[in-house]
Amino acid sequence: MPILKDKETEQLRQLVKACLLEISKLKIDLKKCQNESKSKVDSELMKEKDKRILELEKSLKENEGELLNFTRLLNEKDAEMEDLKKIKLHFDAITARPKKDLTSFQSQVYQLLKGDKGTTEDHYNHILNIGFKELSFDNFNSILRNLERKNYVKSFKEDDKSIWEKIEK
Question: What sign has the CA pseudo-torsion 36, 42, 48, 51?
Answer without folding.
Answer: negative
